[in-house]
Design brief:
The protein is α+β, with helices and mostly antiparallel strands. It has a single domain, classed as Translation Initiation Factor IF3 (2-Layer Sandwich). The chain is 30% helix and 29% strand. It contains six helices and eight strands, in the order H-H-E-E-H-E-E-E-H-E-H-H-E-E. It has a four-stranded mixed beta sheet. Strands 2-6-8-7 form a four-stranded antiparallel beta sheet. Helix 2 runs parallel beside helix 4. It is globular and about 65 Å long.
Length: 273
């Protein structure tokens, strides 16, 4: 895995058992619900198999000023690079199975118990291929497209005349300055905005959003849908927080359809006994 894209031997063996043009007797695997499975097929695509990418990453050391709002550049770069490694390995699996793209991608981060400086980054989604008679779509530079849209949202997006290009993301790890003792004492018993804290969190969110927007521009997308902006501390020191923005960059298939002409999603109900 030194190049960031090599697929482990066990994964290659798993991919050989999946359904493909050269292996029609294989099976497909997916994390789709029943509703998602049917709507993805209705959109003209078939699931091929689960695509997985993993990265265990050691975070470097960076010091911050106790009383200063500032981005933790070393940590920001680490969190972004590790996610990108996991995503690139997931894409490699999609290419190996001949998929047009990946739907329903989930990016998760988990701290390893044996060291608080080590995190595991996992990217997983379902590789899909276009059915016969469907033109199929690819992502940026002819690579498989990636999308965190659900099967229902994927179907609706295509019905609206748009297609996914690539998952885009932005990360910012930020140190929020501590409040001085005299300032803190002056706030005791009062309703007052903590302006330095407000500004720090506002700036950090904007940095993450701006970086996601820059990625969308780089792949020539028209916009980003399904944006999720969330925060996490990952058990770092107090006053250090990450803002992470992620969404799916989209582009028109041909021309945009009038929203009133888009049919309602077909829902399938199931009951578990």
């Amino acid at each position: 895995m030194s190049d960031g894209t090599a697929i482990p031997q066990h994964a290659l063996e798993r991919l050989k058992g999946l359904r493909s043009e050269g292996h029609p007797g294989g099976i497909f695997t997916s994390d789709f619900s029943v509703n998602e499975f049917l709507l993805v097929r209705k959109a003209g695509f078939e699931p091929v198999g689960l695509c997985v990418g993993s990265c265990i990453y050691h975070l470097g050391i960076q010091y911050s000023s106790w009383s200063q709002n500032q981005e933790m550049n070393v940590l920001s770069q680490a969190m972004y690079h590790a996610r990108e490694l996991a995503m690139s390995r997931m894409r490699s699996e999609a290419e190996s199975m001949g998929a047009d793209g990946i739907v329903g991608v989930e990016l998760t981060v988990k701290r390893m118990e044996w060291d608080d400086k080590i995190l595991e980054f996992i990217a997983i989604g379902t590789g899909v291929v276009h059915a016969k008679g469907h033109p199929g779509y690819k992502g940026h530079n002819g690579k498989p497209f990636t999308s965190d849209l659900s099967g229902q949202d994927f179907w609706t997006l295509l019905q609206a005349g748009y297609r996914p290009l690539e998952m885009v993301m932005g990360s910012c790890v930020y140190h929020v300055a501590h409040q001085g003792m005299f300032k803190a004492l002056g706030n005791v018993g009062n309703n007052t905005e903590l302006t330095n804290f407000s500004q720090a969190l506002y700036d950090a969110r904007e940095i993450a959003m701006e970086r996601m927007q820059h990625e969308a521009t780089a792949v020539k997308a028209e916009g980003v849908v399904g944006v999720d902006l969330h925060e996490g501390s990952h058990n770092w020191q107090p006053h250090i927080i990450e803002f992470f923005a992620v969404g799916t960059a989209v582009t028109p298939i041909t021309t945009e359809r009038d929203a009133s002409t888009i049919p309602d999603p077909q829902l399938v109900l199931s009951v578990n006994n």
